[in-house]
Amino acid sequence: MHKPKLSFGQIWNMCFGFLGIQIGFDLQNGNMSRIFQTLGAEMDSLAILWIAAPLTGLIIQPIIGHFSDKTWGRLGRRRPYFLAGAILASCALFIMPNSPTLWMAAGMLWILDASLNITMEPTRAFVGDMLPDRQRTTGYAMQSFFIGVGAVLAGALPWLLTEFGVANTAPEGEIPMTVHIAFYVGGAALFLAVLLTVLTTPEYSPEQMEQFEAARRDALGLGEEIEATAPPRTSNAFFIGGAIWLIIGALLGLFFHGAMADPRPDWLSWLGNVEFKQDLYVFAALIAGFGLVQIVAGLMRSAGKDKNGFMEVVGDLFRMPLTMRQLAVVQFFSWFGLFAMWIYGTPAVADHHYGTTDATTALYQEAGNWWALLGAVRNGVAAAAALAIIWLAAQVDRRKLHAVCLLLGAFGFAGMILIKDPAPLSLPMIGVGVAWAAIVSVPYAILAGSVPARKMGVYMGIFNIFIVVPQLVAATLLGFLLRTFFGNEPIWAFAIAAGSFTCAAIAVLFVSDVPEDASPEPLGAE
């Protein structure tokens, strides 16, 4: 018994909800700093206010994935979660621009990002659930298409409203009406897009999913699922691994503390004039935190309390399939490069192409507007490239396709450095847009064919860790790298991004992948 092939219209409806989800994410990404600063946030505090977003995704997605794997009701197992998340996210989008104080806006960011993550994770697993191997790349590429379109729409909303005469300025401490209306429109679009997916795409029952997976694995000669062949991690292994990570994190924290002391202790005199800042504590805390998670898991396993969601998620993390571990390396370098671009894009263009570092000048604001327009070019190209990926994935090895797309992105980043005139910068953004389309589609298609079907949700959630961790690492290390090795010139963040994409392109060639054309599933519907 094999999954039937779905029509183009069915795949379109299944993925349409991602249009609304991405509108929500891009309204958040494009306007939250503006809202925070309007409500009185200092520039130095923005990073701390923003850290809620990646940390929320790090925690929420594996949990939601775990529970959605075990849910079944009138709406299925994935749809209840992304419908509930869409309702919460829509409400948060309506409330956010009405936040009267900074603390309320920061709290709403937590709620908004958590709600968007509740919605997004099951939609990733949903495609893996519903489509046969031969159509999974098509499904994730369709999601990538809607990501591109949603990003363009969200980015254009405030500008379009301004063109229609809506006020883009407001008295001190008040959020402009363009932001209000953009968030209202985004909230409505998010809910309606997800609702269309919920109403038009029924799910297979758990019994059907088990039959589909058993037939697929038997035909491919893959044997039993991972749980039957990979032994659980022992409590001692958790304790030893946790202690190592905890000690490394603590030692790094002490090192950073000493390096930031004034005067610096003699034993660190060899550092010379290298500058360290407090954001490096986050990097040390990440390492130590991973150690603490393992120690807690060891304590629970030794006490026989390992039949719970926490232990299942942690156990699945350490028993990831080989393909998923290999893809984790690809994702780390891909997203590290992307966050280098997102963090330093505006200051890099302003400094390198417009010759200004003063954010209060009109020239700097012009550079910011041009960078925003380049983002629209990038996302528009990504939407078009996603459609090309649907066709190309059926013609060539997915790993080679992904490597080529990543290298185009690396060339695009290099072009941002080599081209001095702002006008032609849309050309390198084409390469970055192609890479972006591949990053949010091809790895998920490869992953979906390598994990047990009944754990699709939790593994998609765990896979998000390899997006969040490079974001946090980039936020903590990039400033140090630029200060220490590149004279604090932000344009060299693009060089780091190019190198990171190149590493990802090399790594993907070593990923174990079951080609789509090796699938035993029929081309026609049954």
Radius of gyration: 23 Å
- Overall mean pLDDT: 84
Query: What separation lies between the terminal Cα atoms?
Result: 9 Å
> What amount of the residues lies in strands?
under 5%
Question: What best-fitting shape do the alpha-carbon axes yield?
Answer: globular
Number of strands: 0
Sketch the major β-sheet.
Answer: none
Q: Total helix count?
A: 20
Low-confidence regions: 517-526
Structural class: mainly alpha
Relative helix content: over 70%
What string gives the helices and strands in order? HHHHHHHHHHHHHHHHHHHH
Can you give a write-up of this model?
The chain has helices at residues 8-38, 46-50, 52-69, 79-95, 102-130, 133-163, 177-200, 206-220, 226-229, 235-259, 280-302, 309-318, 322-352, 362-392, 398-418, 426-439, 442-448, 456-463, 465-485, 492-508. With 526 residues, the protein is mostly helical. The model is unreliable at 517-526 (pLDDT under 50).
What keywords describe this structure?
mainly alpha, 526 residues, disordered C terminus
What topology does this entry show?
Layout: H1 8-38, H2 46-50, H3 52-69, H4 79-95, H5 102-130, H6 133-163, H7 177-200, H8 206-220, H9 226-229, H10 235-259, H11 280-302, H12 309-318, H13 322-352, H14 362-392, H15 398-418, H16 426-439, H17 442-448, H18 456-463, H19 465-485, H20 492-508
Brief summary of the model shown:
Helices cover 73% and strands 0% of the residues.
